[in-house]
Design a protein that fits this description.
Elements: E1 3-7, H1 16-26, H2 32-43, E2 48-55, E3 58-69, E4 76-85, H3 94-108, E5 111-116, H4 125-133
Parallel strand pairs: 4-5
Antiparallel strand pairs: 1-2, 2-3, 3-4
Length: 148
């Protein structure tokens, strides 16, 4: 068994079915065309990173991140924007492995903190426990307003 992480590259769009499955599990169902367009933009943005978790040449997880600047102090932080492990592989330590690799990338990029938001829905309780168990603290409440 080989387990590794690596950054998304544009040729990974050829493995769209696995990526579509992960997006659906995140609650972001989309089409191949829309996801390909979105990932090309992300891939070409210097502050965005998509870390893939690959087991035996199959993409089983992803961690989408953005490097950001603090307003309140000097330095940069990494914001985790999308994080998912294929449900067939959960409970086996793969999420913790991908999270640690995400933290390592953030550290390599001289980020002082890693942050994330997670919905307050009942189905997110397991995710919240996962984050608590991996050293995250609940520090704030997120708010959102649709503009268009």
């Amino acid at each position: 068994m080989t387990l590794k992480t690596r950054l998304f590259v544009e040729k990974d769009i050829n493995h769209m079915d696995g990526l579509l499955d992960l997006y659906k599990e995140l609650g972001y169902p989309t089409t191949k065309e829309k996801l390909a367009s979105r990932l090309k933009k992300i891939c070409n943005h210097k502050d965005y990173y998509l870390l893939l978790l690959i087991k035996n040449d199959v993409i089983i997880g992803l961690s989408g991140m953005c490097k950001m600047l603090f307003y309140e102090k000097e330095g940069e932080y990494m914001r985790l924007l999308a994080f998912v492990i294929n449900s067939n592989y959960r409970g086996k330590g793969y999420g913790t492995f991908l999270l640690k690799e995400s933290e390592a990338l953030a550290t390599q990029l001289v980020c002082k903190v890693i942050t994330l938001n997670s919905g307050n829905r009942l189905e997110r309780d397991n995710a919240h426990s996962f984050y608590y168990n991996n050293g995250f603290e609940k520090k704030s409440s997120g708010f959102s307003k649709t503009l268009l």
